[in-house]
Every structure is written in structure tokens, then in C-alpha cells.
Amino acid sequence: MKRDFLYKFVKKNNISKNLFVSYVTGSLLLFYFLFITVFGEKGLIKYFELKKQIKSKEIVKFELQNKIKTKKAMVNGMDPENLDLDLVDEESRKVLGYVGKNEVVIYREN
């Protein structure tokens, strides 16, 4: 049935065999390239997925940059030329567990 349709279409419009083959080949190539453009390894779907990954990685990068700034500020506060005594006291209590003379320590059981 399709064969009759194509045969009648070609005869009705006086399309030569070479022109018909060219149209079919061109149509198939066009369909192939459109398909690859959307679904291929470097297609639009992959592009949008990669764009989403880039956004999430930029958020992580921004958070890490903020942590680096905080650590650099702490390091600068511990520099002997710019010594911040409150920072030294806070870090020594946190890391080493030091307690002042008149302070009471209460331990909680979890």
C-alpha cells in the first residue's frame, strides 16, 4: 500500500528516480542529524545536564572559598605580629581542653 502511494506520488509529480533517491537520502540525513543533536553524546540533553552539574559545583566552590577565607582569617589572627589573644584563648580551650583558674567544668553524659 505504501509502495503504491509512493509510486503514485512520484508519477503524479514527475519526479525522476535520482531526484527521489536524493530526497529520501536528504530526509534520512536530516532526521539523523536532528536526532543526534538532541539525544547524542554531545546533544542538547547532555548539555543541560552538564549545565546543572556546573551550577552545583559552583555552589560547592563558593562554600569552600568561604571556608578558606575563614581559615585565613584565623591564621592571620594567630600571626605573632597581629596576635589576637581572644582567638588564641578560644582555640586553646577548644583544641587542647584548657580551662581557666576560676572556671568550673560540667560534663554531660550523652
Low-confidence stretches: none
Strand content: under 5%
Overall mean pLDDT: 87
Q: Class by helix and strand content?
A: mainly alpha
| Rg (CA only) | 36 Å
Elements, N to C (H/E): HHHH
Number of strands: 0
The level of helicity is: over 70%
Distance from first to last alpha carbon: 81 Å
Notable characteristics:
110 residues; mainly alpha; 2 domains; 4 helices; 0% strand
Helix-strand blueprint:
Elements: H1 2-12, H2 17-39, H3 44-78, H4 85-96
Description:
- With about 110 residues, the chain is mostly helical.
- It has two domains: about 1-40; about 55-100.
- Helices cover about 75% and strands about 0% of the residues.
- It contains four helices and no strands.
- It has helices spanning about 1-10, 15-40, 45-80, 85-95.
- The longest helix has about 35 residues, at about 45-80.
- The chain is rod-shaped and about 105 Å long.
- The model has no long low-confidence stretch (mean pLDDT about 85).
